[in-house]
């Protein structure tokens, strides 16, 4: 590196530049926060049930097998759009019943197939979880995933 | 070793290495389930193995960073560590929190966000212990000489602690949750931890090449500047599809591409100083880990990161095995290898012997590194096939997975080799010091 750049000069550029980029990043994050709350997610639809459903999801750490909008583990299918996949957008009642039925049927007794544990959820918890999936499915994800299979 | 309190690093290194071994064991368990889905099905489900694996990684790396700090800080600051008692207490609390979390997982007690599964009381203890550590080391720094190396190191550690506080914020809105979750996960590994990595690298190079401090410290500021200028807005590569505005697609693509720059600078820095330095340091194993870390970090983070960071590529590869491939090589090169480099460098001083077991240590380097690379390649192939079948052709997830069995078997094989290499490393480091140095080199150590 040339003699033009002394150590102290390099340090000052580091502090100045980092502060600038941090402030810019914080400002854009604040805007994104606002955008998420008001534009890209269903504000009125974020009910108590959806919030409870998110906690059911977290309590059993579903994220450590499944991905949700592409983040999490890669051991089991994507669930961010599972509501769409089960036809919930056309026929919510049958999608709800099918999703609850699937969760209750675990573990499937198919040797050699990946297992999903039985979580022993109450009817209330199952309903909340499905509400959470329905709400998540409606997030404006810029058209991700490319295909409904997730 | 000039300062008695540097000895505090030893218990930190011992705990970190024990947890490293456990991390790899849980990795192998999880990889086995991929190959034999019925494996341990009745005893421990996959998600518990996985969270144990990833949490152990983070916990041992943090303990490793603390050990590195207790080792180099007195030397850099030219004064003893402020309070040895606090260092012991901090380690005790951190170990209790880490072990507590690991143990709770085995009984199904955990929180539910990826990497942040620690029960609340563990999170609180981790915070308390880390603050004790920061207080202790900041006092040391304030009382002593301030170099670029110890200043940047402490800055990285403080910033890591500050961003960690987002772990306590869990909004009901999933998109907002993800928005700030990345403020920890991304900003740590592609931001403030790079400050830690850069300063550890600079320390090792000063010690082992004998190149002028002025030059090394200038490079250090350039590297961490590149890291933060690119890495903060680079967070945008995680904001493409989670409900954030569309402008993150160009912004995240451009800035995260620039994130390659600090890793390129680090590998150039390391080799340039290595060739420039005239000193032939007797601890060649430590030099090997140092150069290896910069190199593998460049490939794992830089090359494998760039592979899927552009928004129009990420649209297809997001959340596939490509991500797992990159996550493994990046963490391994940048942070695992850097901590192993410092341990390899410090151990002879801590044990008060000349560099020892060099050959065994270098064997463990080559075996571990090749096996991690092999694991990365096989996961990359799996990821490319998965991306094509599932994201382009629209084949069902479980059907696609059944096409990938061969790759998962090879990953398990690679993992087993990694575990053997870890054992070799532990023997090289903690086992009896056998190897004698050739006459004449002995005077140069330290
Ligand atoms: C040492 C530095 C790095 C480490 C330790 C690291 C680690 C990781 C990990 C563990 C993930 C997965 C997170 C999850 O669970 O979803 C990830 C994702 C990602 N990383 Fe890195 N990374 C590093 C640097 C980079 C760099 C420099 C780039 C870009 C050039 C990059 C690009 C990405 C992208 C695009 C994703 C998202 C993948 C997806 O969409 O599924 N990473 N990284
Ligand atoms: C014996 C060697 C190892 C094996 C067999 C192994 C196996 C695994 C498995 C099966 C997963 C879960 C992937 C999924 O969700 O589908 C995983 C995740 C992960 N492992 Fe390992 N692992 C090993 C070593 C390591 C090492 C040395 C590191 C750190 C350098 C590491 C870091 C990670 C990370 C960061 C994740 C989360 C990835 C993500 O979210 O994208 N693993 N590992
Ligand atoms: Fe990132």
Can you offer a commentary on this structure?
The complex is a heterodimer of chains A (150) and B (446). Chain A contains 5 helices and 2 strands. Chain A is mainly alpha-helical. Chain A has 2 domains: 7-40; 48-137, Cytochrome c-like domain (Cytochrome Bc1 Complex, Chain D, domain 2, Orthogonal Bundle). In chain A, helix 2 packs across helix 5 (123-137). The model of chain A has no long low-confidence stretch (mean pLDDT 96). By secondary structure, chain B is mainly α. Chain B contains 15 helices and no strands. In chain B, helix 5 (148-164) runs antiparallel to helix 6 (174-209) and helix 10 packs parallel to helix 13. Chains A and B meet through helix 1, helix 2, strand 1, strand 2 and helix 5 of A and helix 2, helix 6, helix 7, helix 8 and helix 12 of B. Bound molecules: protoporphyrin IX containing FE (2 copies) and fe (ii) ion. One protoporphyrin IX containing FE sits between chains B (24, 27-28, 30-31, 34, 50, 53-54, 57, 323-324, 327-328, 331-332, 336, 415, 418-419) and A (73-75).
Features:
heterodimer, A: 150 residues, mainly alpha, Cytochrome Bc1 Complex, Chain D, domain 2, 2 domains, two-stranded antiparallel ribbon, 52% helix, B: 446 residues, 15 helices, globular, disordered C terminus, binds protoporphyrin IX containing FE, binds fe (ii) ion
């Amino acid at each position: 590196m040339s003699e033009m750049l002394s150590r102290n000069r390099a340090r000052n550029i580091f502090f100045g530049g980092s502060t600038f980029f941090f402030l810019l990043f914080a400002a854009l994050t604040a805007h994104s926060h606002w955008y998420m709350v008001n534009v890209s997610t269903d504000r009125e639809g974020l009910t108590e049930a959806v919030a409870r459903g998110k906690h059911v999801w977290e309590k059993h750490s579903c994220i450590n097998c499944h991905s949700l909008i592409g983040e999490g583990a890669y051991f089991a299918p994507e669930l961010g759009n599972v509501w769409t996949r089960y036809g919930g957008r056309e026929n919510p009642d049958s999608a709800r019943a099918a999703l609850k039925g699937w969760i209750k049927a675990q573990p499937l007794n198919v040797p050699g197939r990946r297992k999903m544990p039985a979580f022993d959820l109450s009817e209330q918890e199952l309903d909340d979880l499905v509400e959470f999936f329905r709400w998540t499915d409606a997030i404006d994800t810029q058209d991700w995933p490319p295909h409904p299979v997730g | 070793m000039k300062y008695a309190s540097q000895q505090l690093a030893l218990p930190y290194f011992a705990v970190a290495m024990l947890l490293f071994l456990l991390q790899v064991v849980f990795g192998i368990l999880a990889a086995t389930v991929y190959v034999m889905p019925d494996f341990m099905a009745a005893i421990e489900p996959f998600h518990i193995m996985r969270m144990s694996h990833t949490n152990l990684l983070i916990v041992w790396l943090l303990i490793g960073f603390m050990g590195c700090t207790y080792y180099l800080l007195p030397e850099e600051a030219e004064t003893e560590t402020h309070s040895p008692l606090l260092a012991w207490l901090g380690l005790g609390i951190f170990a209790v929190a880490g072990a507590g979390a690991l143990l709770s997982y085995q009984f199904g007690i955990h929180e539910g966000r990826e990497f942040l599964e620690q029960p609340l009381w563990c999170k609180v203890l981790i915070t308390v212990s880390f603050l004790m550590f920061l207080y202790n080391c900041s006092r040391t720094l304030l009382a002593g000489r301030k170099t670029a190396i110890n200043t940047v190191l402490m800055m990285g550690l403080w910033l890591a602690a500050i961003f960690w506080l987002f772990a306590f914020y869990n909004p009901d809105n999933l998109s907002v949750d993800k928005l700030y979750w990345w403020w920890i996960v991304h900003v740590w590994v592609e931001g403030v931890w790079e400050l830690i990595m850069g300063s550890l690298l600079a320390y090792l190079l000063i010690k082992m090449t004998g190149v002028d401090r002025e030059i090394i410290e200038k490079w250090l500021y350039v590297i961490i500047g590149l890291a933060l200028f690119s890495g903060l807005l680079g967070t945008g590569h995680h904001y493409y599809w989670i409900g954030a505005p569309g402008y993150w697609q160009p912004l995240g693509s451009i800035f995260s591409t620039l994130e390659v720059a600090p890793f390129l600078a680090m590998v150039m820095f390391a080799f340039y100083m290595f060739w420039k330095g005239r000193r032939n340091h007797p601890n060649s194993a430590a030099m090997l880990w140092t150069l290896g870390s910069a190199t593998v970090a460049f490939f794992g983070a830089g090359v494998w990161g760039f592979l899927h960071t552009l928004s129009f590529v990420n649209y297809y590869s997001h959340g596939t095995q490509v991500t797992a491939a990159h996550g493994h090589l990046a963490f391994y090169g940048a942070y695992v290898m850097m901590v192993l480099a410092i341990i390899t460098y410090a151990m002879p001083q801590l044990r008060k012997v000349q560099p020892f077991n060099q050959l065994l240590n270098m064997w463990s380097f080559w075996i571990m590194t090749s096996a991690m690379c092999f694991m990365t390649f096989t996961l990359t192939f799996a990821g490319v096939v998965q991306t094509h079948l599932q994201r382009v052709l629209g084949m069902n997830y479980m059907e696609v997975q059944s096409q990938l069995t061969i790759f998962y078997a090879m990953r398990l094989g690679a993992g087993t080799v990694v575990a053997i290499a870890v054992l070799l490393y532990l023997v090289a480091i903690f086992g009896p010091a056998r190897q004698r140095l050739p006459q004449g080199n002995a005077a140069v150590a330290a």
